[in-house]
Design a protein that fits this description.
The complex is a heterodimer of chains A (360) and B (321). In chain A, the strands form two sheets. Chain A has a three-stranded antiparallel sheet, with no helix packed on it. In chain A, strands 4-5 form a two-stranded antiparallel sheet. Chain A is 57% helix and 11% strand. Chain A has 360 residues and is mostly helical. In chain A, strand 1 and strand 2 form a beta hairpin. By secondary structure, chain B is mostly helical. Chain B has a domain of 190 residues: MetI-like fold. Chain B contains 13 helices and two strands; from the N terminus they run H-H-H-H-E-E-H-H-H-H-H-H-H-H-H. In chain B, a hairpin with a 4-residue loop joins strand 1 and strand 2. In chain B, helix 5 crosses helix 8, helix 5 packs parallel to helix 12 and helix 6 packs across helix 8. Chain B is globular. Classes of the chains: A mainly alpha (360), B mainly alpha (321). Chains A and B meet through helix 4, helix 5, helix 9, helix 11 and helix 13 of A and helix 1, helix 6, helix 7, helix 8 and helix 10 of B.
Chain lengths: 360, 321
């Protein structure tokens, strides 16, 4: 029971994050590509509950922004609390302002028309960082999830086949796995990415990324799955099934692979953060999903310019959100591992190198 | 020892061969190549492009190209870069040196810092120094390298104590002797700091857990009972016993550092192999990609080989096997 609690403690916030990101169109105040040309690099707005006279307002508000940019200088803003815009929740807005489908859309948060709300500031085109963060999560988090799924799927099939059928198949698959593991993982990602098309649409490059990251990560979990399968196929119930004339595919599916689920689940929690990181890294370096579609990696790419890095800390926000997410996945992996361990599979000890890769 | 080494070397060569083959197959599968861009240029005729492809042997089938490349490796050229119009090795030589300076410095720094911290944490396991460092380690571990590097760079840009970016000051060619070394060291600080910070949490964790395991052993209790001083006990008795898993970590840490250094090099514009690889990918310059990927494998393999040798020296049981 205690261990279950730990799992929920990590899983609930993660689920919340994913819901926020999935519902980005609802939760984000703006379209991620909508540009506010009058407000480049606007800092995050403060949410006020108390006004200047110290009176408490149940409905929080944001102040208007005074643009103090000189003709040559970098953007500079000041709060002007003589104009305030109360935050409105659950409002319907006429869409179609920016290429979106006509009709009304519901937004979780908005302010009345001439006012603007940038809770996490804006970027160089005046695009709302909060909206980009939520929409970018759709790329980054789900690229991570899908790539993990692909890696583990490959690991189950290849590791399972190698362990179960043995002989030349085992040798062949494990040799290839060795080659994959001989490469430092970013170099492996690059090598896989290097020879795929560079300038493709956002959707294509998303799936390209998923397959590259998924392919890069299959080797280590395959080894683990193979180990579990090797010990599982010696178990009495598997021998009995074989004695009754069950086919290999049936035994694998029904008796052997279920034994690997525990390892695979723990691996998943470890791999996901690595895969998210891979997406962020590739997009940051311009090899992933490109503008104008936001991803957490290409949002950070703006910081490669020193003047942005020096002046606008809120541009780091898509990197900062990774820290709590990785900690939560780390806790989840720990809790899962602690829950699985008592059943005593010797393969768990070989998890440590994987851990290292996750961290880096 | 000799037998052990040759066995490992043969294996390493086989892996290198496998990696080169893998990368070549990837090139072959991929759409697009260096000269494709030229085809879009109306000023270059189709015949010219075709002639260039023949000249560089791109019209040959995969086995032939691979054979040619192997021959060029044996000549020490490592293939030909279309973008630089030169053999790869002279281009790569300096870059590799720069990457090695960065990576080896960080490797030494991170181990030198991780060992005392890990020992200290294991010694105080469960008490507040251990807990606080534990929280710090978790946070640092969850912080992506990109963020660490960008954060450090932002800090340096604000404070302006350290040079940001590059490997030498612009007037480097005029400085001589000791001044040059000082310049290099100053430029090294930021990237090494970033790499060490990324590497540290993992190493600390491993040192701590390896030490904890040993500190539970009866011989430590016995030594403690004999009144051996704490630091002598930790460093003279426990650490050597805990060395085995740490030595096998050594090879892995080399690979991890290489991966991290690619990113750090790009962010901090360190003139190593990282920026070169990125450029080559964007320009579709295949042989540079192959060479850089092979170099990274070679370095990783060398790291684990070194780890094996250390293990061989440290653990007599392995010698018997």
């Amino acid at each position: 029971m205690m261990r279950n609690k730990k799992i929920w403690f990590a899983a609930m916030p993660l689920a919340l994050v994913h819901i926020l990101v999935l519902g980005a169109r609802f939760f984000a105040p703006y379209d991620p590509a909508q540009q506010h040309r009058d407000a480049p690099f606007a800092p995050p707005m403060r949410i006020h509950f108390l006004d200047a006279r110290g009176k408490f307002h149940l409905r929080p508000y944001v102040c208007a922004r005074l643009n103090q940019t000189t003709s040559t200088g970098s953007p500079r803003y000041a709060e002007d609390c003589s104009h305030v815009w109360p935050l409105r929740f659950l409002v319907s807005q006429e869409a179609g302002v920016f290429g979106a489908a006509p009709g009304t859309t519901w937004h979780f948060l908005a302010v009345d028309a001439p006012g603007q709300v940038f809770l996490l500031g804006t970027d160089d085109y005046g695009r709302d960082q909060l909206s980009r963060l939520l929409h970018g999560g759709q790329v980054s988090l789900f690229a991570g999830l899908l790539a993990t799924g692909l890696s583990l799927g490959l690991a189950m099939v290849l590791g399972g086949a190698a362990g179960y059928f043995g002989s030349w198949l085992d040798d062949g698959i494990m040799r290839v796995a060795e080659v994959f593991m001989a490469l430092p993982w970013i170099y492996l990602l690059f090598a896989l990415r290097a020879f795929l098309p560079l300038n493709v649409g956002a959707r294509q490059s998303f799936f390209l990324l998923v397959s590259v990251i998924g392919l890069a990560g299959w080797a280590r979990p395959s080894r683990l799955v193979r180990g579990v399968v090797l010990s599982a196929k010696q178990r009495d119930f598997v021998r009995a099934a074989r004695g009754f004339g069950a086919s290999s595919v049936y035994i694998l599916r029904r008796h052997v692979l279920p034994e690997t689920y525990a390892v695979v689940l723990t691996q998943a929690a470890l791999l996901i953060s690595q895969c998210i990181l891979a997406e962020v890294t590739l997009s940051f370096l311009g090899l992933g999903v490109g503008e104008p579609v936001p991803s957490w990696g290409n949002m950070l790419a703006a910081l490669q310019k020193y003047y942005v890095l020096e002046n606008y800390w809120w541009m780091l926000v898509s990197g900062l959100v990774l820290v709590p997410i990785f900690i939560l996945y780390h806790l989840l992996a720990d809790a899962l591992q602690a829950r699985i361990k008592p059943s005593g599979s010797p393969e768990m000890s070989s998890l440590t190198p994987q851990r290292l890769r996750v961290a880096i | 020892m000799a037998h052990f080494l040759t066995q490992r070397l043969a294996r390493a060569l086989l892996v290198l061969f496998g990696v080169s083959l893998l990368v070549f197959i990837l090139i072959d599968l991929a759409p697009g190549e260096y000269f494709q861009e030229m085809r879009l240029n109306p000023q270059i005729s189709r015949e010219t492009v075709a002639a260039l492809r023949t000249q560089y042997g791109l019209d040959q089938p995969l086995p032939v190209r691979y054979g040619r490349w192997l021959r060029s490796v044996s000549r020490g050229e490592l293939g030909f870069s279309f973008a630089y119009n030169s053999p790869v090795w002279p281009l790569l030589k300096r870059r590799i040196g720069n990457t090695l300076i960065l990576t080896i410095t960080s490797l030494v720094c991170s181990w030198l810092i991780a060992i005392p911290i890990g020992i200290r944490m294991a010694d105080r396991a469960g008490r507040w120094p251990d807990r606080i460092s534990g929280i710090g380690v978790t946070f640092l571990q969850a912080t992506p390298d990109v963020l660490i590097a960008l954060g450090l760079l932002a800090l340096a840009l604000r404070v302006r104590w350290l040079p940001t970016g590059g490997m030498h000051a612009p007037d480097f060619s005029e400085t001589e002797g000791l001044g040059g070394v000082k310049d290099l060291v100053l430029h090294l600080v930021l990237p090494v700091l970033a790499l060490t910070a990324g590497m540290l949490p993992v190493l600390v964790r491993h040192v701590r857990s390896a030490m904890l395991e040993v500190l539970d052993a009866p011989f430590i209790a016995a030594a403690r009972g004999h009144g051996i001083r704490r630091y002598r006990l930790l460093l003279g008795y426990a650490l050597p016993a805990a060395a085995n898993p740490l030595i096998s970590m050594f090879g892995i840490s080399v690979g991890a550092l290489l991966s991290a250094s690619l990113l750090i090099e790009v962010i901090m514009s360190w003139p190593g192999v990282g920026p070169m690889l990125l450029e080559a990918i964007l320009q579709r310059d295949p042989y540079i990609v192959v060479a850089v990927v092979l170099f990274s494998t070679l370095f990783l393999v060398a790291g684990s080989l070194l780890g094996d040798v250390f293990l061989y020296i440290a653990d007599p049981r392995i010698r018997v096997e």
